């Protein structure tokens, strides 16, 4: 009887031990297999240039740690296909909403024009274009030189300040090396009111661009410069010439001398 009880107790102990061993083994295996939770984001399958419209073959899903979530990402390819890239993207880089143009905006320059603003193109040349140093993203002032009909005198006026260049010629991205390049047309980002002023002024004379520091946002109140102002500056800087001394037209009379002449008892005065 005692032997039977010992056998039953031993069998129960073996079963319980095997059950817990199996349970702990599965728990440890699941921990190593699953690891930390992961997210899946849409990323670029290869390098993508700015201005390119994304296609399905340009995309691939990538795993991302759930502990470091990204804001503005996409999980489905249909949310990304057909949208235009605003900035160059490296291969395998997660695609963010801020890196893409608005849905339906298409490609080209219009994708860079914010709501309420306008893109305005003005004629340029090698000199007016600041010797080729007008790059997309730089800021300029716009000056116009024209002739006032009433006085027939030229005048230069600042019609726009701190305007951003959207495109220089056909380029919408700055040169990576910063090399200067002459351009024929400069496209500016302006408000509708400024667009009217610049267009009106450009029809009256020649447009000039003045390059400014990108950190300088000050609006300077400058009065138009007239030709008379240049003359005043020249007069102030020119040396004062001495006035010539006028010579008298009348010749000075020579000095007269008197001599007393004695002739016997007579005395006379001779002048010569």
Topology:
Elements: H1 2-34, E1 38-44, E2 59-65, E3 118-123, E4 139-148, E5 153-168, E6 185-190, H2 192-202, E7 205-212, E8 225-226, H3 227-237, E9 258-263, E10 266-271
Antiparallel strand pairs: 1-2, 3-6, 4-5, 4-7, 5-6, 5-8, 9-10
Describe the fold and architecture.
- With 272 residues, the protein is an alpha+beta fold.
- The protein has helices spanning 2-34, 192-202, 227-237, and strands at residues 38-44, 59-65, 118-123, 139-148, 153-168, 185-190, 205-212, 225-226, 258-263, 266-271.
- Strands 3, 4, 5, 6, 7 and 8 form a 6-stranded antiparallel sheet that branches. A two-stranded antiparallel ribbon has the order 1-2. Strands 9-10 form a two-stranded antiparallel sheet.
- Strand 9 (258-263) and strand 10 form a beta hairpin.
- The longest helix has 33 residues, at 2-34.
Tell me, rounded to a whole number, the average pLDDT.
77
Give the structural class.
alpha+beta
Distance separating the two termini: 187 Å
Unreliable residue runs: 233-238
Order of helices and strands: HEEEEEEHEEHEE
Shape from CA axes? elongated
Number of helices: 3
Task: Indicate the percent of residues in helices.
Answer: 10-25%
Q: What structural keywords apply?
A:
six-stranded antiparallel beta sheet, alpha+beta, two-stranded antiparallel sheet, 10 strands
Give a quick rundown of the structure:
The protein is an alpha+beta fold. It has helices spanning about 1-35, 190-200, 225-235; strands spanning about 40-45, 60-65, 120-125, 140-150, 155-170, 185-190, 205-210, 225, 260-265, 265-270.
